[in-house]
């Protein structure tokens, strides 16, 4: 009889409404199912524990269904705030949206090991920040916004043209690798351009891995990796617009549009920026901020294939016209020695592609990135013309090894072409400039061994070869241990960099000093040791606190840093000694329900180099433009009933040594300073949002003469009333010259 009733119920002959009782769990931000959430369900005197399935569903068992409602639910899920609620009587299907922890922290990361996996389970420490995190302090470029990450500092290298690079844990910009979708895409020549003009509407998240990563990514990944992950066209909003205007006259517009078909989808993003208003707050007759006009187009295609195999192609075009200099400068003065200006025309083309080979028994991936960068720059009357092409290819096999083993085996090829008009490219025998051709083939292997449930080990080794430097080995080793809510990570590794000075050192182009190579340059090497202790405390069902404490030590050999001690020369050679960057970092995060989010961090760094002088005495020189202490903070207050959010962002930088001349009248150390910002966001429904912000609330900017001898930029009067032999120099820069500004913006999206 029971069998007959069951059969009739299955075919709908008998009403069996209690089978329809379903709990559905989803992410509050994007509606995706929350999988493997633990649900404690108390029905009368019965207590049951369930786990959500691949669709985010929990279906109560027959014993629970027979109990009287209301049922009490306690929901716990990794990377989500816990929740307690009642399942009302008469309601068969209950929809529950869970709030992701701090929203900016995403569960999946790929940068540390080339494999998608949980951020918490990654052996290599990786920090992940969503686009929503950077929208709390709206900026026109990711280059500016990356300063919100503790231990990461954008550094402007010139007060006239505002070009710069990114320092990680106190290490110079050339040691930072920037990637897009996991592919090497940004070189020393174009780091600032790689993070400028990426449409914010295209960004899904940004992952930051600190410490050498040459074992996976090769040359340049000494200080760390910044990986910009773009949105999946299948999941991105169908349309998105983000536009704002500032009180300084800056106009920035981002827009994207997704076109979706059954098997293929495309996401087109556009970024446009224009700033043409001269500012001279310090009255030195030079623009405080470069005038810019740029446009960037990014088109990404993604295909759905059998067995969820990957296939995507991305195309990007970037053009920028920027200039800074004396206020009376016009394009007709470009390249002359009458009115000083620095004018840069940049055009950049990029091709990114990912493809998983159609092999049923193996997971083999091919990645490639190719970019062509053209730059036409004038610094006063010095012309810098450069063309650079970088093509990076990577083929790797994701190997499912024996019990507990997860391995990678790959081969890479990186080709670099560069042609410029610098002394480094000049061939005295043929009396002409010759292009550089650099081939860098490599092979790498990595194995992740899960020794026990709470202990994991990762080992990797890379081999590269260059004609200039020969054989290069780059090993790394990492260990992770978990105890309850605490995680300990220890990693060590080697990094290297094949050097091209003129693509990285702006001072060699803008200074009146003569560039001198004292020897054939060797590749830079580094050894790093990093230890991290992370702790999570779920204080209550809707309270969450976590922090991590990291210590790092990096030892450099063959380091190449320009020597400015001679006022007439810039000397380049390998360091006859060693350099060190060491320090401590602390990050903390607190969240109360979805009403209050706090994120902060402090980094302490000591960076210096030890070298013997001409008489054999070891001298220590502290690295310039490196704050010993820096701190970041972000506070978010949410008012759901008003659909309003208030965001505070703060940056604090301690004193740093500055590049001064002998007998320089300017301070050789900068003051401690802070940059505060406040932003208010107001939403109307799910589509419209308006924001108003005030950047640099206290209106801080350097009051010193940041440009030395701004009245004589061509050094025509250097012998007149100049007992200290000062020359024109724009490198004394420790903070932006951009004072307080108001920003008004609008966002609109069509899901």
What does this structure look like?
- The protein has 751 residues and is mostly beta strands.
- It has 2 domains: 14-98, Carboxypeptidase-like, regulatory domain (Immunoglobulin-like), CATH 2.60.40.1120; 229-250 and 277-750, TonB-dependent receptor, beta-barrel domain (Maltoporin, Chain A), CATH 2.40.170.20.
- Helices cover 5% and strands 52% of the residues.
- The strands form 8 sheets. It has a 22-stranded antiparallel beta barrel.
- Strand 20 and strand 21 form a beta hairpin.
- The radius of gyration is 28 Å and the shape is globular.
- Mean pLDDT is 84; it is low at 1-19.
Structural class: mainly beta
Number of DSSP-assigned strands? 43
CATH topology of the largest domain: Maltoporin, Chain A
Q: How many structural domains?
A: 2
The CATH fourth-level homologous superfamily of the largest domain: TonB-dependent receptor, beta-barrel domain
Q: Do you know the CATH architecture of the largest domain? A: Beta Barrel
From the structure provided, what is the oligomeric state, counting identical versus distinct chains?
A: single chain
What is the overall number of helices?
A: 7
């Amino acid at each position: 009889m029971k069998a007959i009733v069951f059969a009739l119920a299955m075919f709908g002959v008998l009403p069996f409404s209690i089978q329809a009782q379903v709990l559905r769990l989803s992410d509050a931000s994007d509606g995706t199912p929350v999988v493997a959430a633990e649900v404690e369900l108390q029905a009368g005197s019965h207590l049951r524990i369930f786990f959500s399935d691949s669709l985010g569903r929990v279906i109560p068992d027959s014993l629970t269904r027979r109990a009287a409602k209301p049922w009490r639910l306690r929901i716990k899920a990794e990377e989500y705030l816990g929740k307690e609620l009642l399942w009302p009587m008469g309601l068969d299907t209950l929809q529950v949206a869970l709030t992701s922890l701090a929203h900016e922290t995403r569960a999946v990361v790929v940068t540390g090991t080339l494999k998608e996996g949980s951020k918490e389970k990654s052996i290599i420490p990786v920090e992940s920040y969503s686009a929503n995190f950077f929208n709390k302090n709206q900026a026109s470029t990711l280059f500016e916004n990356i300063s919100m990450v503790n231990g990461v500092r954008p550094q402007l290298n010139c007060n006239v043209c505002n070009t710069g690079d990114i320092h990680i844990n106190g290490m110079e910009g050339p040691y930072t690798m920037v990637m897009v979708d996991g592919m090497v895409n940004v070189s020393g020549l174009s780091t600032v351009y790689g993070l400028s003009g990426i449409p914010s509407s295209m960004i899904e998240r940004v992952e930051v891995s600190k410490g050498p990563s040459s074992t996976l990514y090769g040359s340049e990944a000494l200080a760390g990796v910044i990986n910009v992950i773009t949105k999946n066209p299948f999941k991105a909003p169908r349309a998105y617009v983000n536009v704002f205007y500032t009180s300084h006259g800056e106009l920035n517009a981002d827009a994207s549009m997704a076109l979706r078909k059954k098997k293929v989808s495309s996401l087109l993003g556009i970024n446009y920026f224009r700033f043409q208003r001269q500012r001279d707050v310090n009255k030195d007759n030079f623009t405080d901020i470069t005038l810019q006009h740029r446009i960037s187009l990014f088109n990404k295609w993604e295909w759905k294939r059998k067995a969820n195999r990957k296939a995507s192609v991305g195309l990007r075009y970037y053009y920028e016209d920027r200039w800074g200099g004396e206020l009376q400068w016009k394009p007709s003065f470009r390249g002359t020695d009458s009115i000083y200006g620095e004018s840069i025309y940049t055009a950049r083309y990029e091709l990114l592609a990912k493809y998983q080979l159609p092999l049923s028994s193996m997971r083999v991936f091919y990645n490639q990135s190719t970019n062509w960068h053209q730059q036409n720059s004038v610094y006063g009357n010095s012309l810098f013309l450069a063309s650079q092409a970088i093509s990076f290819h990577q083929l790797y096999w994701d190997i499912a090894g024996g019990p507990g083993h997860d391995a990678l085996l790959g081969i890479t090829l990186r080709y670099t072409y560069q042609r410029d008009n610098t002394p480094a490219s000049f061939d005295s025998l043929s009396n002409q400039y010759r292009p550089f051709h650099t081939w860098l083939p490599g092979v790498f292997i990595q194995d992740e061994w899960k020794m026990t449930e709470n202990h994991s080990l990762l080992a990797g080794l890379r081999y590269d070869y260059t004609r200039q430097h020969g054989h290069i080995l780059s090993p790394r080793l990492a260990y992770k241990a978990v105890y309850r809510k605490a995680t300990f990570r220890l990693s060590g590794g080697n990094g290297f960099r094949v050097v091209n000075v003129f693509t990285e050192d702006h001072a060699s182009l803008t200074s009146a000093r003569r560039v001198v190579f004292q020897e054939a340059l060797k590749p830079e090497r580094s050894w790093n040791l990093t230890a991290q202790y992370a702790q999570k405390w779920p204080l209550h069902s809707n309270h969450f606190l976590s922090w991590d404490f990291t210590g790092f030590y990096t030892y450099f050999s063959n380091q190449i840093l320009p020597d400015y001690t001679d006022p007439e020369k810039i000397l380049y050679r390998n360091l006859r000694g060693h350099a060190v960057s060491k320090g401590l970092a602390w990050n903390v995060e607190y969240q109360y329900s979805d009403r209050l989010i706090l994120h902060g961090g402090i980094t302490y760094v000591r960076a210096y180099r030890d070298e013997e002088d001409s008489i054999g005495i070891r001298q220590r020189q502290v690295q310039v433009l490196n704050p010993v202490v820096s701190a970041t903070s972000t506070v978010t207050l949410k008012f759901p009933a008003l659909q309003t959010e208030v965001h505070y962002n703060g940056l604090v930088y301690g004193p740093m040594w500055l590049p001064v001349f002998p007998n320089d009248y300017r301070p050789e150390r900068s003051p401690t300073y802070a940059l505060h910002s406040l932003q208010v966001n107001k939403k109307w429904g799910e589509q419209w949002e308006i924001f108003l912000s005030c950047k640099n609330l206290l209106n801080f900017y350097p009051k010193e003469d940041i440009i030395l001898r701004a009245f004589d930029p061509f050094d025509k009067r250097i012998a007149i009333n100049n007992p200290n032999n000062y020359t024109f120099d724009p490198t004394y820069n420790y903070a932006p010259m951009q004072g307080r500004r108001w920003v008004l913006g609008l966002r609109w999206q069509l899901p």
